[in-house]
Amino acid sequence: MKPLLIRGGTVVNADREFRADVLCEGGRITAVGTDLATPAGCETLDAGGRYVIPGGIDPHTHMQLPFMGTVTRDDFYSGTAAAMAGGTTTIIDFVIPDPQEPLIDAYRKWRGWAEKSAGDYSFHVAVTWWSDSVHRDMGTLVTEEGVNSFKHFMAYKNAIMCDDETLVNSFRRALELGAMPTVHAENGELVYLLQAEMKAKGIFGPEGHPLSRPPAVEAEAAQRAIAIADVLNVPIYVVHVSCAESAAAIAAARARGQRVYGEVLAGHLVLDDSVYRNPSFEYAAGHVMSPPFRPKGHGDMLWRGLQAGSLHTTATDHCTFCAEQKAAGKADFSLIPNGCGGVEERMAVLWHEGVNGGKLTPSEFVAVTSANAARLFNVYPKKGCIAPGADADVVLWDPKATQTLSVKTQHSLGDFNIFEGRTVQGRATHTLSRGSLVWADGDLRAVRGAGQYIKRPPFAPQFAPLARKAELEQPVPVAR
Ligand code: URP
Ligand code: ZN
Ligand code: ZN
Ligand code: ZN
C-alpha cells in the first residue's frame, strides 16, 4: 500500500476543526500538519474545500442476521461495502446466541461469517439466557476476544428476550469485567399482549406494528433498565432510543449523575409513523422495525437529546429484509421480519438534517457519528479521530455535493430505502479504510475480506468513577 497525502483540507475532530494535511502510511495516520512534505512514492489527494473527517462508526448493525425465520439480505461483505460508500468504515455488529446456545459457540459462528467483511468490524454479544456457563463465557469474551459490551433484548418474547433475573445477573457480571451493558428497551410482555389485542380487533396489517409498541412500552423498559443499572452502579447504553419518553428518562438519569448513554438511529430522527398507514403493504412493511417510527414530534426530541449531550451516538440498526421476506407477515403484522437499512445513508442524513439544519456543528457531527462511539466502546483514538497513530480511516466530506437517496443507487443489497427520494447535501467523496482508498468519486473499491476484527479492551474511561463511587459508598455495618 502506497503512502497517501491528503492536502489542503479542513480536519474536523470532535474537539475542533483546523486546516491541515494528513499523511497516511502503512494503514495509520502518521502526520497531521500544515504543508507536510510529500514522501517518495506517495500518492496525493487534493482535499481543496472539503472536510477531512474520521471514518464513521456505526455501533449498531445486523449483517447476515438469522432473525424471525429468515436471514438479512446484506452479509458482512455487502453491508460493510455499502457503509464505505457513505463514509462509514467501522461497524459494531451483534452476536445473538439462541437461548441455551453457548455464547462462545455463537461468537465463533459470527466471527466466521464476518471474515468476508470489507470494512473493520467488532461485536457486541447478546446475553439471551443465564447460567454459570454464560457467566464464564462472558469472562472469556472480554479477556481473550476483545468484547467489551453485552446486549440485552427486553423484547422478542419466546425468542431472545431476557427477563429481569438475566438482566441483573448479566449487568453485575459486565460490571466486574469492565464491559458495557446495552439494552434494546421495549417491554416484551406488553408487546406480546398488545399484538394479540390488535389482531382481536381485526388489525392484521403493518399499522398494527406501532399500535402494539407505543412509546410507553419503550419508556417502561428504558426506565427499568436504567434503574437496575443505577442500583448495581453499572454504566448503561440504551440502543435505538426512538421516543421522547425514553430520551427524557435518559436525560433525567444523567441529571441525577448516572452514567447512562443513548443511541439514536438516523431513521428515527427523520421519519414518522405515517409510513405504516400507507395503503401499500410493501411500503408499510418496508418500514417495520422495532422500535417503530414514532408520531411527529418525537424526532425533534431526539435531535434535542443529541444537541444537549444526553444522547451520544447515531447508528442505523442496518438489518435488511426484502419484499418477499417481509411478505411472511402479509396476513399478520407480527410475523413481518423486523428491520430496515441505512448504513450507507446515515452520515449524509445526519449532516444534511443536523449541520445544514442548524442543529449540529461539524465537530458535533463527528462526535455523534464516530468519536463518541469510539470513546464509549474504548477504541478511541485508534478510531474516531484524525491524529498521528490513529487508523487511517479517513473520509473526504464535500459539504456542497448533493445526492438523492434511493434504492436505485444504493449499494446495499436490500430492495427498499427508508430515505427514498430525500435529497441531501453533504456527502463522502472519498473513503479510506486503514489507508486504502475504498470509495473514490462514485467508484466503490471494497475488497472482500480486507476488514479487520477490532478488539476492544475492557474498562473504558466511564468505569473508573463508578469504581471510586462504590469504594466511597461502601456500606458499613453498625458495631453493636
Ligand atoms: O427491528 C429491528 N430493530 N431489528 C433488528 C433487531 C433489533 O431489535 O435490533
Ligand atoms: Zn462473578
Ligand atoms: Zn433492537
Ligand atoms: Zn438491532
From TrEMBL:
Its EC number is 3.5.2.2. Residues 51-426 form the Amidohydrolase-related domain. Keywords: Hydrolase, Metal-binding, Zinc. Gene3D superfamilies: Metal-dependent hydrolases, Urease, subunit C, domain 1. InterPro entries: Amidohydro-rel (IPR006680), Hydantoinase/dihydroPyrase (IPR011778), Metal-dep_hydrolase_composite (IPR011059), Metal_Hydrolase (IPR032466), Metallo-dep_Hydrolases_sf (IPR050378). SUPFAM superfamilies: Composite domain of metallo-dependent hydrolases (SSF51338), Metallo-dependent hydrolases (SSF51556). It is an enzyme of class 3 (hydrolase). The modification N6-carboxylysine is found at K151. It comes from the Bacteria. One of its GO terms (biological process) is pyrimidine-containing compound metabolic process. One of its GO terms (molecular function) is metal ion binding. One of its GO terms (cellular component) is cytosol. CDD domains: D-HYD. Carbamylation allows a single lysine to coordinate two divalent metal cations. Its cofactor is Zn(2+). It catalyses: 5,6-dihydrouracil + H2O = 3-(carbamoylamino)propanoate + H(+). Catalyzes the hydrolysis of dihydropyrimidines and of the structurally related DL-5-mono-substituted hydantoins, to produce N-carbamoyl-D-amino acids. Homotetramer. Belongs to the metallo-dependent hydrolases superfamily. Hydantoinase/dihydropyrimidinase family. This is D-hydantoinase/dihydropyrimidinase.
